[in-house]
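Rotation project, supervised by the postdoc (A.L.). Task for the rotation student: set up a whole-complex structure prediction and record inputs and outputs verbatim in this book. Inputs entered:
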Amino acid sequence: AQTVTQSQPEMSVQEAETVTLSCTYDTSESDYYLFWYKQPPSRQMILVIRQEAYKQQNATENRFSVNFQKAAKSFSLKISDSQLGDAAMYFCAYRSGNSGNTPLVFGKGTRLSVIA
Amino acid sequence: DTEVTQTPKHLVMGMTNKKSLKCEQHMGHRAMYWYKQKAKKPPELMFVYSYEKLSINESVPSRFSPECPNSSLLNLHLHALQPEDSALYLCASSQDWGQGYNQPQHFGDGTRLSIL
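Outputs recorded:
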């Protein structure tokens, strides 16, 4: 079974600075998809960014980018120019690409605080 | 604004009560999900509906009964719940289930459920 590990329960960053959240996963599959979700205190889970395993190019979405290292099974999230609104719980998630009936596998999350 | 609407936002009920949680989306998604989330933990998948048919039941106790009356609506009927069932219940939808491996799930704001 696939597992997702987020080794940093909590992180903090100064406003306007850059922070990197780590995520590693364990799988024997070659075809899969990776996601970062953000959950602010408002509770809604919001998709931040996604990466297809077959793509070598790292995904970017405005201030958010990933460092996808397939061989190392690492999928870290970099947040540039951090803003107060980035404070939230961040979940890394994995989904198999080999079967239609597989759910998301979530990591335990990293709570990010942004200091003004 | 969330595209997946959940009602009610908060619910307090006794162990003998019967209540229902409601989830609605109008994005044309054909897969809908129920998750349970305890504080400071990742969401745990409960049920997956694909094209209004139950695809996955993650060994959820029968006191939780899902229903998908149509492609836009997903209900979770609650009966004889236990105090440990107190949690945030999240609904999500995605474009597809079987073919849309990389399709992100869109989450609602959740219902905060407290069992007395």
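Student's summary: Chain B touches chain A at residues 2, 33, 40-43, 45, 48, 55-56, 58, 88, 90, 92, 97-99, 101-102, 104-110, 112 (CB under 8 Å).
Supervisor addendum: The longest strand of chain B covers residues 18-25.
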